[in-house]
């Protein structure tokens, strides 16, 4: 009888522990599922003009997103997400701003925000020559083996494993600044806006460069973060360069497989940069490379405070996008109104190619220097803390380890290649030695897109 009581007591403890863990897991996981789904569905439907069905089947068609219910309200341009009726989250669409997930502030407070937005030029880009427009003149490029190039592009639209598709949606290849290859998957066109995910970080870097050129920010100065102004605070030593190179040393966990600083920031915080600024120091600035979306959203807040409220929301468009002919790109803000510089931008494939062309041309575009002299070189110079030579100013590099240059991220590609790199296989590759810009956008959810081979195949087409 005593043994039976012990067994029953032990089972009760196990059941209570399991229930407690289950409740905890649901409490931290469900808001991520409902928030991720609501935000992405809202952007896809109202910003990109995608169908609900396609979004549900593809972007949200994986576990645990399949646990969520996402309801689109076409009357107020919003999407509400929940998991089994719990953890309801709402994302709203606002013209000129895209989708925003409601966090900490009320929906009414967010909807009542007033910002000066950029006025998009009223032009017909089909009548304007590339790259400022979309009029493409046939160019015979004798230095390209078109058969090899077309094979390289077409190969990544073929699904060799239909159970784990790579879903390439758009490819644009530039050589000498001209479009030499362009292809889209069924249902997608040159006018389809696609999410850049972490390629947005590279845009945020470019916006920082513009402010450096204007003399409003200094790369080697302490980062202008009010929370770190005390000279005795170890974070006071963090420079703008440390933020750009992801070497701030902040105690910030970037992990999307569970509840972490990154998921809390993106799906539960109104002011993402402020949330990051609150984190304590873990390592000495400049000594450890740790990729963090928090660093970028802090940088986005710095840009907002530097530009000022009157001009901030128009700034990316007036000072960067429209000067490149990127008329179909948009950045989306968090609930506080600061652009989510780490993750949320949408653009057509040609716009991403234009962005790459800015860097290929050393920061000069349409006869105007937009980035400081030397900025692109610094962008493509590895941080000392990046042991594999893999990171510069919010761009991924292919330089390789200092003592072993063959040990690099893309071993079959040129060492001078660098790129914007986003979740699920978004890329803008820039290869100065071959005068190439390669854009690949897709929805690769199984990490099975061989970017190294694809780029190497494109490079092999250059005679």
From TrEMBL:
InterPro entries: Beta-lactam-related (IPR001466), Beta-lactam/transpept-like (IPR012338), Diverse_Enzym_Activities (IPR050789). Transmembrane segments: none annotated. Residues 159-450 form the Beta-lactamase-related domain. Signal peptide: none annotated. One of its GO terms (molecular function) is hydrolase activity. Gene3D superfamilies: DD-peptidase/beta-lactamase superfamily. This is Serine hydrolase. The lineage of its organism: Bacteria, Pseudomonadati, Bacteroidota, Chitinophagia, Chitinophagales.
